[in-house]
Design a protein that fits this description.
Layout: H1 2-8, E1 12-13, E2 19-20, H2 122-138, H3 145-149, H4 153-167, H5 179-189, H6 212-234, H7 254-273, H8 280-320, H9 324-383, H10 387-446, E3 463-465, E4 476-478, H11 481-577, H12 582-638
Antiparallel strand pairs: 1-2, 3-4
Helix pairs in contact: 2-6, 4-6, 7-8, 11-12
Length: 639
């Protein structure tokens, strides 16, 4: 058992591949600060399921035991009860074992992976929205379907943090940070494969057309990861969950050994914080777990030893016996000799069979020749013929036989020729029928089915094929092709060409008229632009005159005010100095009246100029309206 404890106390490796010691650390020990790992001070770590390399996300998949209790099984914690919390902090939840360093970042390199999902398609977006809405409802997150259609930055942040918390309940969200500063680290921590394609500027308006597909795909990926994590945690028979209560009595899987080691370390850690330095209870539990397994292993070992002894006896018997290969080789040699003998016998029998067959054929030929000679001899005796007559009759018989063979050959050749001609005739008849069908379709397309327009109203251009006719001239039923149909078609074609030429001439004439109308419209447009330029120049002149009049009026008003002040001053001086300044007062009054008259004259001129310009603008508008009406009437008459 001491060896087992030494083996289980070796440094363990967490799910991120970082080496961590299996020995508990006292609270007085100095902890080295590390920016790459955020450690928990909230008590013992919850059991983390064992994940093979590359499986799941890179974050801590264990639930926190200090979150609010929720009756929803999708959100219930799978960690151990609350015990062994240190008094260093009173955190409401423990921190994540998430590594913020480059070890959780996507693979380095200039290569960027393109998202293979069709996130720009409306149908795929609708399906993603439905999946997100269903999962949020199942995890007791209050949301409506309209929220996903008109998303805001606040709603997106709430949904994102909720889904990340489901995947990693201990992820350290900081409410003091902006969401733009938390999005990329969270995606990299969860190993989102397309995090480099997300721009933080999109979070200002997440529902925009260019940013919503990618941000919606992030939420859908988190939903799929949450479902996968839930299915993994609910798979009770999976040994990688490392649940000590589910380890069988007989086991040999390394994962089961790791689960027992983790259970021993965590319980010893809790006992250590309760003040224990010797872990007798944990040692007994570990010994009991391995003791039950050792009983089964001893029983299996004894069975294997009995089976090994039986196998040794069987092997000794086989070694003492003579090798069966020699006996098999002798049997094989005998069989090969027998095969050679049988082959020799079969060869001799086959040769004898061929000789006998040839002898039988030869005997039959001789017998047939003898029978024919005997019959011929009997016929000659009966008819009393001479030898010359017999020879001549044989010669005639042979000649007639050859002639008969020639005639039979000619008849067979004639039959072959007739059959080939019938095939050719059938093919040509089918081709002729297709040609006549095409001819009929063309007549229907060009409108030459009876009745035809004058002067061809008495002509029928239709043709029918009569393959049963014996006379070749009667194969086609209808009018004569050379005398009636062909001249009629030529005449119709000439008439159509003439009509087409007339239509083409009319089209050219209409095109010329349209070109002229277009040119006239362009000229009218030029005139309108010139008049507009004149109107603009007149408006500018009127503005200049108005500005000049206003400036002169302001100068005149200032001068009048100055003269009034001088007049008042002169009046005061006259009252004070006597009658010596009366003449000066009269001169100032005269100048004042001149200025008043000048101001009145300038006002009248300005009003007249404005009225004149307004009248000219009204006349110009009437002229332009009249020109446009005449142009519209002209175009309507042309159409």
């Amino acid at each position: 058992m001491s060896e087992l404890r030494r083996s289980t106390m070796q440094p363990a490796t967490d799910i991120y591949g970082n080496t961590r010691s299996g020995l508990p650390m006292p609270s007085t020990a100095k902890k080295a600060s590390s920016s790459a790992m955020r450690m928990s001070l909230a008590g013992p770590a919850a059991r983390t399921p064992y994940l093979p390399p590359g499986a799941g996300s890179g974050s801590n998949t264990g639930h926190s035991g200090y979150r609010s209790q929720n009756v929803n099984p999708l959100l219930q914690s799978t960690s151990k009860p609350n015990y062994g919390r240190t008094p260093l902090t009173n955190s409401s939840r423990r921190g994540s074992v998430w590594t913020g360093g480059p070890s959780l970042a996507p693979p380095s390199g200039s290569q960027t992976f393109k998202d293979p999902r069709p996130i720009r398609e409306r149908s795929y977006q609708s399906r993603m929205k439905q999946d997100i809405y269903s999962w949020l409802q199942a995890t007791e997150f209050d949301i409506s379907v309209q929220t996903l259609s008109n998303i805001t930055g606040k709603d997106y942040r709430a949904m994102f943090q909720h889904l990340v918390t489901i995947v990693d309940p201990g992820y350290p969200f900081d409410p003091r940070l902006r969401f733009e500063d938390e999005l990329q680290p969270a995606l990299k921590a969860l190993r989102y494969p397309f995090s480099t394609q997300i721009d933080n500027k999109w979070l200002a308006a997440p529902g925009s057309m260019h940013s919503w597909p990618a941000l919606l795909a992030v939420l859908h990926w988190l939903v799929e990861m949450g479902k996968a994590r839930l299915n993994y945690l609910q798979s009770e028979d999976d040994p990688t969950l490392q649940i000590a209560d589910r380890i069988p009595e007989e086991f040999s899987d390394p994962i089961h050994h790791q689960a027992l080691a983790f259970n021993y370390f965590s319980e010893a850690y809790v006992a250590f914080f309760h003040g224990a330095d010797v872990f007798h209870e944990q040692d007994k539990e570990l010994e009991a777990s391995y003791g039950t397994s050792s009983i089964f292993l001893k029983a299996a070992l004894s069975d294997d030893r009995i089976e090994a002894k039986k196998n040794e006896r069987v092997v000794g018997d086989l070694e003492n016996k003579k090798a069966p290969l020699e006996k098999l080789q002798k049997i094989r040699a005998c069989i090969l000799d027998d095969r050679a003998k049988f082959d020799d016998v079969l060869h001799r029998l086959e040769s004898r069979k061929r000789q006998l067959t040839e002898s039988v054929v030869r005997e039959k030929a001789e017998l047939a020749a003898r029978c024919a000679t005997e019959k011929l001899t009997e016929v000659v005796k009966v008819q009393n013929l001479t030898a010359e007559e017999v020879i001549r009759m044989n010669t005639d018989h042979e000649t007639l036989a050859r002639n008969l063979e020639d005639l039979k050959y000619k008849i067979s050749e004639a039959r072959k020729t007739v059959m080939s001609l019938e095939v050719i005739t059938t093919n040509r008849g089918a081709a002729a029928e297709e040609a006549l069908d095409l001819y009929g379709n063309l007549l229907s397309a060009v409108g030459l089915f009876p009745p035809l327009p004058p002067p061809f109203d008495n002509i029928d251009l239709r043709l029918e094929l009569n393959t049963a006719a014996a006379n070749p001239q009667q194969l086609l039923l209808g009018s004569d092709i050379r005398k009636v149909i062909k001249p009629t078609l030529n005449s119709v074609a000439e008439i159509k060409r003439t009509e087409r030429a007339d239509i083409e001439s009319e089209r050219i004439k209409v095109d010329n008229e349209l070109d002229q109308l277009t040119l006239e419209c362009e000229n009218v447009d030029e005139e309108v632009r010139e008049i507009e330029k004149k109107v603009m120049s007149l408006n500018e002149q009127a503005d200049d005159l108005r500005d000049a009049a206003q400036q002169e009026s302001m100068v005149s008003n200032a001068e009048a005010a100055r003269l009034e002040r001088e007049l008042a001053h002169a009046r005061t001086a006259a009252l004070s100095s006597g009658m010596g300044v009366k003449s000066r007062l009269q001169a100032l009054q005269f100048d004042y009246r001149e200025q008043i008259a000048k101001v009145s004259r300038l006002k009248d001129e300005t009003i007249r100029a404005i009225a004149k310009n307004s009248n000219e603008i009204g006349l110009f508008k009437e002229e332009v309206s009249a020109q446009l009406r005449r142009l519209r009437d002209f175009v309507e008459e042309g159409n």
